Amino acid sequence: EAGVAQSPRYKIIEKRQSVAFWCNPISGHATLYWYQQILGQGPKLLIQFQNNGVVDDSQLPKDRFSAERLKGVDSTLKIQPAKLEDSAVYLCASSQGAQNSPLHFGNGTRLTVT
Amino acid sequence: GDSVTQMEGPVTLSEEAFLTINCTYTATGYPSLFWYVQYPGEGLQLLLKATKADDKGSNKGFEATYRKETTSFHLEKGSVQVSDSAVYFCALSGYAGNTPLVFGKGTRLSVIA
Asked: CB B105: neighbour CB atoms within 10 A?
């Protein structure tokens, strides 16, 4: 099966600019996650979708980050305006949604904010 | 809240050495426990998992046993290879279904020939 697709692979922007990341999960996976992985740390959940509804966005900095999953398939994550501390790898993952079903991760988008 | 603590790296071993990466967790109820691996330039991959106490997860020669009494899930391999060089993440998923993973900080392993 095709894996989780993410684009772009790399992005460099200046602070205060905006940026968007795209994710296409594995076909049929109901649950989609966005994680932020800062260098030297483990991934931290930003938002979880179940189909096209938000399950958990408690750790999403809503003043600058937004995410949507229209039609319950692919998803976009946006940052506007970006700060230096947003430099990280943004990981998308999907799962079937059943208890203990494994997460499948994309290769991530590495964002550098200068 | 739920959390995972794993040993700091980097860990450097010679080929065929024994590997242990310690992982302990804090969680309410009975979480599921996972080890994920991230090879250079690749995404996170599930290495193994255990969903209840005393379960042993295993894959590719790696093993980890879910120890409820010590709240631990240490990763072990009897004989590492150069190809095992990667970053290893311990993670847990809460007791309720479909809860997101909480990750440790990761441990970088380098195996030298």
From this structure: 18
Percentage, residues of chain B above pLDDT 70: 96
Whether B97 sits inside 8 A of A98 (CB atoms) is yes
Strand partners, A91: A35
Which residues, listed in sequence order, are joined to residue B111 by a DSSP beta bridge? B13
Q: Is the pLDDT of residue B41 over 90?
A: no
Q: Among A57, A58, A60, A59, which Cα is nearest to A48's?
A: A57
Per-residue pLDDT tens for A9-25? 999 999 999 999 999 99
Residues of A in contact with B49 (CB under 8 A): 100, 102
Q: How many CA atoms lie within 13 A of B41 on its CB side?
A: 0
Burial of B37 per CB tally in 10 Å (0-12, 13-18, 19+): buried
Q: Which amino acid is present at A54?
A: V
Confidence of residue B66 (pLDDT cuts 50, 70, 90): very high
Q: Do B45 and A45 touch (CB under 8 A)?
A: no
What residues of chain B lie within 8 A of the CB of A105, using their CB? 36, 43-45
Dihedrals phi, psi of B22, to nearest 5 degrees: -80, 145
Using only C-alpha atoms, chain A has a radius of gyration, in whole angstroms, of: 13
Q: Which of B49, B100, B106 sits opposite A42 (nearest CB)?
A: B106
Which tokens sit at B91?
Answer: 């993670």
Within 8 A by CB and 6+ apart from B33, the residues are B23, B25, B49, B50, B51, B57, B64, B66, B73, B90, B91, B92
